[in-house]
Design goal:
heterodimer, A: about 550 residues, mainly alpha, 21 helices, about 70% helix, globular, B: about 120 residues, two-stranded antiparallel sheet, 5 helices
């Protein structure tokens, strides 16, 4: 694995470097151009709510088709075969939760962050604080995954073997990302996402067509070749290779499936994107575009993963021996198919993916801190928006620094797996609360706090005490063993627990009655979009004035 | 939009304008209207059963993959097995549900929700 420079260097580092620098420059130009139109808080956090559904759908796909999807899933399929495919199915089906239950209602009831919606009919300060804590934790987990992916990718391209050099790469990615966020805000990162997603889907489509073409467009022949190249033989074509060893790993597989399908609609950086469009109808179009683009992309990655196993000389065994390990499957296939130029193109797109996604994550986390914690909890709403944006920018720098440190610690982990952990935390801490808030009338502040903190603490603790962190050679800390929880993914326990805690917290808080008038208002707003935040450029519509909640008769007449 | 004429509807017989708005919480009024009840019933009637269906269908797939790998490995055409087809069907059902929902929302939800929103924002409630 070390010392064999000629065998491990892939492509021409100079050409790769040239394409990289070109990409970074192009994205920087985009970001600086976008910054000229960013003036208000709505501009900075929500791009002035001026994107169309299709534009935002492409951008949200970009957020979603992160390094984990592109490198991690293709890599997992190339090495573990079918079990890698489950990731993509879970990641896709999850969008139905967002489409049917969350996207439009959330767009109609909030302003910038998840905290806006959750605190709508609750006591604001504790709920906003909880939403911000959860947003920060989920975003940091997700950031770790992306940073680890960046390290692995650049390691492969520039043949950077040492941990110190890879750490340097992670630091550079982090610094670039901070620049994007400071300068471009949501508008800049959205445009970077749109450009990058378009290139990514074109690139993946080219590789898919090329790979299938070399088997005469016969998927079955491609699969047969992949099985022949793998040391596991036919087993790569059926489920069970990674998760089929024993009952524990099978249950782990189900737990992963649960995290994937419920996590998406709880991911703060996805939720925040619904505020960049002018209406709920555009939010719906956003999700529809996202589902089609993401679905098609995952079909591509299925082919790319098996094709990497089939076509890369040395097969899966060589893939795992490369710097970047299984994450290098897609770049290696690109090199095999199209030589240095395709490799450079695919790698630059993958690198742009990481930059854009980390920028999106950072702006979400920063917005949540500045908007929920600083402006609404600490300053209790008495803060001018300019100052709030300044706080958001400072937070972005802090988060960038944390992500760099964490990313260095996470180097070498499978990125799809790390992302799955972020999904587990999102599915546990956020989704139960979001659904209860939108659909359960009795749900109250205690319920929110029990569910969010319960889901957050249980999922994070279970991860800490799982084999993902310690005890096995693939763990984050392989040399120690405090893995007392057998599953690598905590969702199977922590998601039902969070739902249960939300229920118990609500029914056990005797003195606290849910605000029925606010629930009625929220339900009307959620379903009709009345009084929702509009595009900054459109004529402002005065929302209906709300009077303090008084007792109302069933016909809605006030009794004073 | 803020000065649109009175919209006929559930509240047609009442005096218009500022006076009435002072007496009524518009959200509560909208919430108790027949139109809103219809909108909510239609929305819930579609999304809840559909969510139950796609989650059940998805977990059937996950459980089969975990606990019936030999069944999933049965070959159907060449090296394409039941597992792969089952997985691709998950893609197909996701695309289908998306399309169904959009058609449903455009036809059955949007006209109603637009009407309620316009009444609310026009101050007619």
């Amino acid at each position: 694995m070390t010392g064999e420079l000629a065998q491990n260097a892939v492509g021409d580092p100079l050409l790769n470097g040239g394409i990289f620098v070109f990409f970074v420059l192009v994205t920087l130009v985009i970001v600086f151009r976008a910054s000229r139109r960013t003036k208000t808080a709505a501009d900075y956090y929500a791009a002035g709510r001026s994107f169309t559904g299709p534009q935002n759908g492409v951008a949200i796909s970009g957020d979603y088709l992160s390094a984990a999807s592109f490198l991690g899933i293709a890599g997992a399929i190339s090495v573990y075969g079918y079990d890698g495919f489950l990731y993509s199915i879970g990641f896709l089906v999850a969008w139905l939760v967002a489409l049917l239950l969350v996207a439009e209602l959330l767009r109609n009831t909030g302003k910038f962050t998840m905290g806006d919606v959750l605190s709508f009919r609750m006591r604001r300060r504790p709920v906003r604080a909880a939403a911000a804590v959860s947003t920060l934790v989920v975003s940091l987990f997700y950031l770790l995954a992306q940073m680890a992916g960046a390290g692995g990718l650049v390691a492969l391209l520039f043949n950077v073997e040492g941990r110190g050099a890879q750490a340097l790469v992670v630091a550079v990615v982090g610094l670039l990302m901070i620049v994007y966020v400071l300068v471009g805000g949501m508008r800049g990162t959205t445009w970077v996402q749109i450009v990058k997603t378009t290139l990514l889907i074109i690139g993946a489509g080219m590789m898919t067509a090329w790979a299938l073409g070399s088997f005469g467009l016969n998927l079955s022949a491609l699969l047969a070749e992949a099985a022949a190249k793998s040391s596991h033989g036919q087993a790569v074509l059926a489920p069970g290779l990674q998760y089929g060893k024993n009952l524990t790993t099978k249950i782990d597989f189900v737990s992963l499936g649960l995290a994937l399908v419920l996590g998406t609609a709880g991911l703060p950086h996805i939720l925040m994107r619904f505020y960049t469009v002018p209406s709920a109808k555009e939010a719906r179009r956003t999700v529809v575009w996202a589902i089609w683009l993401i679905g098609i992309f995952y079909l591509f990655s299925l082919v790319i993963g098996y094709a990497a196993a089939a076509l890369v000389p040395g097969g899966p065994q060589r893939i795992v021996s490369m710097p970047g390990e299984e994450n290098s499957a897609a770049p290696l296939l690109a090199y095999q198919l199209g030589g240095e130029v395709l490799l450079g193109f695919i790698s630059a797109v993958a690198f742009a993916t990481i930059l854009a996604v980390v920028a999106g994550l950072t702006i979400t986390a920063a917005a949540s801190f500045a908007h929920d914690v600083y402006a609404n909890v600490i300053k209790q709403g008495n803060l001018n928006p300019d100052r709030e944006v300044l706080v958001a920018r400072i937070t972005a720098c802090v988060i960038g620094a944390l992500a760099i440190l964490g990313g260095i610690a996470a180097l070498g982990q499978n990125v799809a797996f790390l992302v799955a952990l972020a999904f587990a935390v999102a599915a546990s801490a956020n989704l139960p609360t979001i659904l209860y808030s939108l659909f359960w009338k009795r749900f109250n502040t205690s319920g929110v706090l029990w569910s969010m903190y319960g889901g957050l603490v249980s999922s994070v603790l279970l991860i800490v005490f799982s084999p993902a962190v310690s005890g096995t050679h693939k763990s984050m800390f392989p040399s120690v063993d405090f893995a007392i929880f057998p599953l690598r993914n905590p969702a199977l326990i922590s998601v039902p627990l969070a739902f249960l805690l939300g229920y118990l917290g609500t029914v056990l808080s005797k003195g606290e009655v849910a605000d029925a008038a606010r629930f009625a208002e929220m339900e009307v707003r959620a379903l009709t979009g009345a009084g929702a935040e509009r595009s900054a450029s459109a004529a402002p519509v005065p929302p209906p004035q709300r009077r303090p909640p008084l007792n109302t008769t069933p016909t809605g007449r006030l009794t004073r | 939009m803020s000065t649109t004429a009175s919209v006929s509807g559930a509240d047609g017989g009442h005096v218009g304008g500022v006076d009435r708005v002072d007496l009524v919480d518009p959200w509560a009024a909208a919430h108790t209207s027949v139109e809103f009840a219809t909108l909510r019933r239609r929305f819930h009637g579609f999304v809840f059963p559909m969510t139950a269906f796609f989650l059940a269908w998805y977990f059937l797939y996950v459980l089969m993959a975990a606990f019936a790998p030999h069944f999933m490995a049965i070959k159907v055409v060449g090296d394409i097995n039941i597992g792969l087809i089952f997985g691709l069907l998950q893609f197909g059902s996701t695309f289908a549900i998306t399309t169904l929902y959009v058609q449903f929302a455009n036809r059955r939800l949007d006209p109603l929700s637009n009407r309620i929103r316009e009444q609310l924002e026009g101050g007619n409630w």
